[in-house]
């Protein structure tokens, strides 16, 4: 195995190295390329077996683009995405083909956001859940039906529902069907992009509990993407915070919420509603100045400096690298050691 395919520790399931994704911006006559949207910039992520890694940040910060670059090779991406398959081999996701691509499609799968849009209304649950079994595992007949029925039971629906169509089910039930389809071929790594965002609050916690139970039962690893910090807090072991395509903070969930180290994380946490009404007045909501800058023309220096209330002269000219400020805590801020930022506690 060449050196650049080295993933280190056996526990590592997925590793991105200096992953960037840039989309061309076309304008004017002849649709000339006038610039690039830097959707993902130099991301280094390591996901460990059976963990849930959260990915948070405002709309447009690059979460979906990062998640989709993990799921499949894409032309706009540079850098590396490495995956350790069930049989212990390291696959380079950017160069997948043939048998390796088939393995990857089976082992790394996605839960979609909107169960209304992602389920074909003309197909029965058997056809919906059976499709990956047919396409990825080559199953058919009673074997396929038994596997689909078993999966339906695992997600809390009755196997007797296999002949019904999606419209017969509620939003929460449809998301269970969608999860069944994702998990039925036996993936190891699951990317969930806003998997509960389209659901009513009352149904949300049931689906989150289901995802957690399935993780334990099936030994799954999750990359869990959400703009909602309270959702991430309850599910994730570690959280990565994104801003303008970059990871600006990464740490264990409890430490991150109790004591954020990056001013952007502090602002995001301050916007999470406090459940206890007696403590509601005690926390300051930090309103970020201005809009998110244009990702095709990000600010020089620290990309967050145009909105950061702690910015200094150094921040305007010098970009802070993502660095370890305490064991397991990565922060991209020049002043991480000096700032006393407010957490959720
Ligand atoms: N196919 C594409 N072509 C051009 N630009 C794109 C494409 N996909 C995403 N972008 C741009 O890349 C940036 C990141 O988008 P992305 O969808 O990854 O953000 P996100 O964090 O998932 O946002 P949201 O929370 O709204 O889902 C945005 O500026 C978006 O407009
Ligand atoms: S480096 Fe400066 S501008 Fe960037 S987050 Fe830290 S204090 Fe704010
Ligand atoms: Mg998205």
UniProtKB/TrEMBL annotation:
GO terms for biological process: peptide transport; transmembrane transport. GO terms for molecular function: ATP binding; ATP hydrolysis activity. It comes from the Bacteria. Keywords: ATP-binding, Nucleotide-binding, Transport. Residues 14-269 form the ABC transporter domain. PROSITE patterns: ABC_TRANSPORTER_1 (PS00211), ABC_TRANSPORTER_2 (PS50893). The keyword ATP-binding applies. Belongs to the ABC transporter superfamily. This is ATP-binding cassette domain-containing protein. It comes from Halostreptopolyspora alba.
